[in-house]
Design goal:
Layout (H helix, E strand, L loop, with lengths): L2 H12 L2 H12 L10 E2 L5 H4 L1 E2 L3 H8 L3 H32 L3 H12 L6 H11 L6 H8 L14 H26 L3 H9 L4 H23 L9 H7 L5 H4 L2 H11 L3 H30 L5
Antiparallel strand pairs: 1-2
Length: 299
């Protein structure tokens, strides 16, 4: 690289400095706290004054009576969110692509996209009111139909389903845009050839639209592997209660209660470190699969 070209690029590199500083201060500097996972951490003694106990916190976690149920809840809820979060946007994107009236198409896109911008604090309050067993509109409709009321947010049978369905409802509009973009990239000549061969709309969707979406579907699916242990702390925290800990408690909420409410900082850090290591392995695997299957690269 010539000196002249290097001088021209210096301002561009300087623009990266604020972002790098933020990354170092808020992402890498706190990683020093990983040592707490191997200590009987006492805040007043600090990181260097607390007793070192090795893998004691990890052994304690493995002996916790509900840890395996929490792990199952996390994997189940996150996996179902990933699966339905792929299927629903694909179907909606294909259906929207069939709409020919543009103002209706854009109106529907806007409506399904709006929940993505709302926080779970707001949506949680809405869901609590809507699903209330006494005054919620859902239970009022069920009573009008002669059905028994259901305490959706207080039943271990219903709570995971509420989490999964409400998360898909909130986020499928955003994913739909990605799949619509994939559909617009399909060569129109393929549809013309299918019409010449006598294919109706269903055949065109099955033999042209879906195969054309396969690369982006595979990419999105593989990149989602890293979220298997991320079941959504914001959502669960705003909706759950002690009555549904059995089916709704996840690793993140367990870490919150143990670390911030019970002040067992070492145990909470051990669980968080385990989650981070597994997530790192899954993310590395997902990017490897994305590269091998659809030739996706970060750089």
């Amino acid at each position: 690289m010539s000196m002249q070209k290097l001088k021209q690029q210096v301002p561009l590199h300087l623009m990266l400095v604020p972002g790098i500083l933020v990354l170092l201060v808020f992402c890498y500097y706190p990683m020093a706290g990983i040592g707490i996972a191997f200590q009987k951490f006492i805040p007043i003694k600090g990181l260097f004054g607390s007793d070192w106990i090795g893998f004691g916190n990890f052994r304690y976690v493995l002996k916790m009576p509900d840890i395996w149920q929490v792990l199952y809840n996390t994997v189940f809820i996150a996996s179902m969110k990933i699966v339905l979060g792929m299927i629903v946007p694909i179907i909606i994107a294909i259906l929207l692509n069939e709409l020919k009236v543009m103002f209706i198409k854009r109106g529907v896109q806007t409506l399904i996209y709006l929940p993505h911008f709302m926080s779970w604090v707001i949506l949680g309050g809405i869901l609590v009111d809507v699903l209330s067993p006494s005054e919620g509109i859902v239970n009022q409709l069920m009573q009008a139909l002669g059905l028994d009321t259901v305490f959706f947010l207080g039943s271990n049978n219903w709570f995971p389903s509420v989490l999964i369905v409400s998360d898909v409802w909130k986020e499928f509009g955003f994913s739909t845009i990605v799949f619509l973009a994939a559909i617009t990239g399909i060569n129109p000549a393929l549809y013309e050839a299918a019409i010449v061969d006598g294919a109706n709309h269903m055949r065109q969707m099955w033999h042209v639209t879906l195969p054309g979406m396969v690369p982006i579907i595979v990419l999105m699916a593989t990149l989602s592997l890293g979220n298997v242990l991320n079941a959504g702390f914001d959502q669960v925290f705003n909706l759950y209660s002690p009555s549904v800990y059995q089916s709704g408690d996840i690793l993140d909420t367990l870490i919150y209660r143990i670390g911030l409410l019970d002040a067992q900082f070492g145990v909470a850090t051990a669980i968080g470190l385990f989650k981070s290591v597994v997530s790192f392995v899954l993310i590395a695997l997902s990017y490897f699969l994305a590269y091998r299957l659809v030739n996706y690269r970060i750089f």
